[in-house]
Amino acid sequence: MSRFFNKKFSSLKAYVPGEQPKDMKYLKLNTNESPYPPSPSVCKAVNCDEASLLKLYPDPDCTELKAAIADLYGMKTDNIFVSNGSDDILNFSFAAFSSKDKKAYFADITYGFYSVFAEYNGVEYVKIPLDGELSINVDDYINKDGLIVIANPNAPTGNFIPVSEIEKIVASNKNGVVVIDEAYVDFGGESCVGLVNKYDNLLVVQTFSKSRSMAGARLGFAVGNRELISDLETLKFSTNPYSINRITLKAGVEAIKENDYYTGNCKKIIEAREYTYNELTLLGFDVIKSYANFLFAKSSAISGERLYLLLKQNGILVRHFDAERIKEYNRITIGTMDDMCKFITAVKKILECEK
Ligand SMILES: *Cc1c(COP(=O)(O)O)cnc(C)c1O
């Protein structure tokens, strides 16, 4: 740390992304990327003509992309905010809708970025423990009147709360914004977008990084009441109005047009997830039922860390977290069926050697 670093950041612990190794080729089941490439029209649109236009700034209003997203979800363009990854939107949400006296509330076991964003923005926050099954207890989120942030499905557990339950939280939190982070909603959950016209305090955040195979493009969007959206626009135009580059804007529009391609991929991923769930259960693992493109699993036959390390030696990366409550688990991203057969074969081999 330099002696010039602002004191308000001196204790900030930055988010640690999953490994993106360069040393050897791994089967990457660690950062919840899609195993499938972007749709054919996305690959076609990102071409030399588009590259030659990089000399020009992109459209700061992102009109075409917003219109495409609004159309897909039956909303108006002014209900849509887009930015450089949904992480960007989550950061803006903490900045915009919580403060020193308006606390933020989120689960103890959830997306690790929430506490980083709270710290970064100097916001008071409360971590609400998941129950013994690692599920969110909806009653814990009633009448908070602060900023509530819920990943639904949750990460890294894969649990899902029905929309009717989320609605109870939104309805009881009239003086605070409820952010529902739906990064994984396309893998079997149900979106809360349908509630947006009914509540002025609900912001639904989604990403192109998981189900839409564009983690490398950095694109996220939010759906909400137009006044909430306008607050986010104020923050975006006060920091980086051109935060989405031209190529990503173009790719995003094409991806929305080919929605069926992505729905098909999600179906395949769900099939591979259920296969993996069954196989792990047969091998004696304790696996949480998942509505996402990953599984969260532990075994009494091997520690979480050891399984992670042995899988890595076998060329397979999964995600292991050190936090006390979940250190016996690994989070396994679901790839193709072929990927998951390789994964199960490796797990069998490892367990055999542990006997
Ligand atoms: C992956 C993920 C995101 C981040 O998505 P980006 O759009 O790539 O920034 C947000 N929330 C959760 C819960 C995630 O797992």
Query: End-to-end span in angstroms?
Result: 47 Å
Strand content: 5-15%
Major sheet description: 7 strands, mixed
- Give the fraction of residues assigned to helices: 25-40%
Backbone structural class:
alpha/beta
Beta-strand segment tally: 12
| Ligands present | pyridoxal-5'-phosphate
**Average residue-wise pLDDT:** 96
Question: What Rg is obtained from the alpha carbons, in whole angstroms?
Answer: 21 Å
- The gross shape turns out to be globular
Residue windows where pLDDT falls under 50 for at least 5 positions: none
Q: What is the H/E order?
A: EHHHEHEHEEHEEEHHHEEHEEH
The neighbouring-strand order within the major sheet is 2-8-7-6-5-3-4
Number of helices: 11
Task: Summarize the model shown.
The protein is α/β, with parallel strands linked by helices and 355 residues long. 37% of the residues lie in helices and 14% in strands. It has a seven-stranded mixed sheet, with helices on both faces. Strands 9-10-12 form a three-stranded antiparallel sheet. The chain has a two-stranded parallel sheet with strand order 1-11.
